[in-house]
Amino acid sequence: MRQTLAVISLNLKSIPRRLGMSTATIGAVALVVAVLLGFQAIGNGFRATAERSGAEDIAIMLREGSQAELNSGLSRDQARLIEVADGVARDETDNGIISAELYVIVDGVLRGAQTEANLGLRGLEANGPGMRQGFRLVEGRMFSPGAAELIVGEGVQREFLGFELGQEIRLGTNNWTVVGIFSTGGTVFDSEVWSDLGVLQNLYQRGSSVQSVRARLTSPDGLERLQAYVENEPRLNLDVQTEAEFFAGQSSGTAGVISSLGWPLSIVMAIGALAGAWNTLYSSVDARAREIATLRAIGFSGFSAFIGTMAEAVMLSAIGGAVGTGIAVLFFNGLSFQGLGDSFTQVVFDLSVTWDSIETGITLAIMVGVFGGIFPAIRAARMPILAVHRG
Amino acid sequence: MNRLTLVRKNLFRKKTRSTLLLLSIAIAFLLYGALGAFNQFWEDPPQAPTRLVTLNKINFTQPLPYAYYNRLQSVDGIVAASHANWFGGYFREPTNVVTSFAVEPESWFTVYPEFDMPADQRARFISDRTCMAAGAPIAEQYGWSVGDRVPLQSNIFTRADGAEAWQLEVCAIYTSTADTAGAGAVLLHYELFRETASFGGNSLGWFVLLTEDAALNESVSRGIDDMFANSSAETETSTEAAFNQAFLEQFGDIATILSLVIGAAFVSILIIVGTTMVLSIAERTKEIGVLKTLGFRNNAVFGMVLAESVFLSLLGGLIGLGLAAGLLAAAEAGLGDAFPPIVMTVEIVGSAVALMLLFGLITGVIPAASALRLKIIDAFSKG
Question: What is the value of pTM for the model shown?
Answer without folding.
Answer: 0.79
